[in-house]
Amino acid sequence: MNTHLPLLRRFALVTVFFATVFMGGCGGGPTLAPVSGVVTLDGKPYPNAVVNFQPVATNGIDAPGLGSMAITDENGKFTLKYDNVKPGAVVGKHVIRIVTNGVFTAPQNEEGTGSDDELPKEAKVDPIPPEWFDPNNPKHFDVPAGGTDQANFAITSKKAKKK
To answer: N or C: which end of the chain has fewer CB within 10 A?
Structure first.
């Protein structure tokens, strides 16, 4: 039986997992920097997107810290919070994942539409292409030590690519 968890619940489970793995033995914690930006879909500000930054292990640091996330406002703007509490994100390289809040992600076909055979009737297919949440094709962003307000992501839907 295929079950689907709402997106925020999945992020909560991931956060709990990383907290359990990384918090043991942590001293003062990682260096954080403020991060904000805008998400657009097909050239327009995209509201209600979940933006997730997960730090990548580099330079011998196996546990760089917890992830940061935010939900875009009506203008597509977001400001990350580390572990859903502190403003910012860990300084360094991150894997970026962006999906629409509360929308189930269905497999996409060549036309950019999903297969809803296994989804609840009230579920909608995410207009954000699956590569923005695909662990095999990760998107990256480097958080500078001074932070940034230019973490902007211009996403093109498969429908727009076909035009």
So the answer is: N
Question: Residue 154 and residue 28: Cα distance in Å, rounded?
Answer: 35
**HEC secondary structure over the chain:** CCCCCCHHHHHHHHHHHHHHHHHCCCCCCCCEECEEEEEEECCEECCCEEEEEEECCECCECCCCCCEEEECCCCCEEECEECCCEECEECEEEEEEEEECCCECCCECCCCCECCCCCCCCCCECCCCHHHCCCCCCEEEEECCCCECCCCEEECCHHHHHC
Report how far apart the first and last C-alpha atoms of the chain are (Å, whole number).
37
Q: Are strands 153-155 and 36-41 parallel, antiparallel or unpaired?
A: parallel
92 and 142 in contact (C-beta within 8 Å)?
A: yes
Question: 113-120 long-range contacts, Cβ below 8 Å, gap at least 24?
Answer: 118/2, 118/4, 119/4, 120/4
**What does pLDDT average to in each consecutive run of 10 residues of the chain (163 residues)?**
51 51 56 97 97 86 83 98 93 94 62 52 79 87 97 88 60
Give the separation between CA 3 and CA 22, rounded to whole angstroms. 28
Distance CA 23, CA 139 (A): 26
